[in-house]
Amino acid sequence: MKKLLNTLFITQPEVYLSLDGDNIVLLKEKEQLGRLPLHNLESVVAFGYTGASPALMGYCAERNISLIFFTMNGRFLARVIGKSRGNVVLRKKQYRISDDEIASVQIARNFIIGKIYNQKWILERMTRDYPLRIDVTQFKDVSRFLSAIIKQVRLCDSLETLRGLEGQAAINYNKLFDQMILQQKDDFFFHHRSRRPPLDNVNAMLSFAYTLLANDTASALEGVGLDAYVGFMHQDRPGRVSLALDLMEELRGVYADRFVLSLINTKVINKDDFLKKENGTVIMTDEARKKFLKAWQNKKQEKITHPFLGEKISWGLVPHAQALLLARFLRGDLDEYPPFLWK
């Protein structure tokens, strides 16, 4: 149980939620795990719950406290609310901003600042931890270049320019990605990003990680009442979770890239975990995906200190924290959306 931004996160599995007076009570096999007053909560988020009492649902609905349910793997199930007050206002604000390029770029550039900042500190961490195994001069040069790009992003006033700056940063960061692969170099290498289809083992892993991250981020956005399909930087396209792709930008490197590198460098995944089709497409085997998913769930349980909130949370709650902060900004509770800045 974790309270964050007036939201209660319940991450223990098989917990039943009930009401006692003005308190939410957490029960597991009739044993009380915890209780918390509801009067200062805006929402309750439960992962892998076993049920919620009608009394609790009614209490929350009357007081505009959202009840949001996810599977233990983070897949969004449902959001239970009372009269559509705040949710409608929030989405209308999201849609208005999405249709206004000037307003959109003011939010989108913070997503990209977060992405480039985190890429920079991935490189800096490598120079600190593995100075004898990488070209430190190259890494420092790219780090300085990324710092300069961030300054340009801060002043950017168009989405086209923003996408160009993000592209420059990505090209330079990707040039060093192969050096960050420290083990199994004969079987794992990165020359460039190939998406549809992935043409090597590393790209197959990156594509899978980005898909998982996009799903987690989309679920987090739905949980706070935002429309995951209406973005600010990524243009609307039927079936594409554009806002999730926006929000996950700042987490791509620090969350997904580092995760893939760790699986390679610790040899959790090896060359036997891949199949190459006749058209050159490389895919992971079923067994490899199982190992990947198990490690992904373990990663989501690791604790970090959130750089803006200053509180310890699990990695798995980071997309939810950022979705909450974005919703707070859109409601006018924050002057600016604070990206996730890792160091």
Automatic annotation (TrEMBL):
CDD domains: Cas1_I-C (cd09721). Keywords: Antiviral defense, DNA-binding, Endonuclease, Hydrolase, Magnesium, Manganese, Metal-binding, Nuclease. One of its GO terms (biological process) is maintenance of CRISPR repeat elements. Mn(2+) binds at residues 166, 234, 249. Its cofactor is Mg(2+); Mn(2+). It comes from the Bacteria. Its EC number is 3.1.-.-. One of its GO terms (molecular function) is hydrolase activity. Coiled coil: none annotated. Homodimer, forms a heterotetramer with a Cas2 homodimer. PANTHER family: CRISPR-ASSOCIATED ENDONUCLEASE CAS1 1 (PTHR34353). CRISPR (clustered regularly interspaced short palindromic repeat), is an adaptive immune system that provides protection against mobile genetic elements (viruses, transposable elements and conjugative plasmids). CRISPR clusters contain spacers, sequences complementary to antecedent mobile elements, and target invading nucleic acids. CRISPR clusters are transcribed and processed into CRISPR RNA (crRNA). Acts as a dsDNA endonuclease. Involved in the integration of spacer DNA into the CRISPR cassette. Belongs to the CRISPR-associated endonuclease Cas1 family. This is CRISPR-associated endonuclease Cas1.
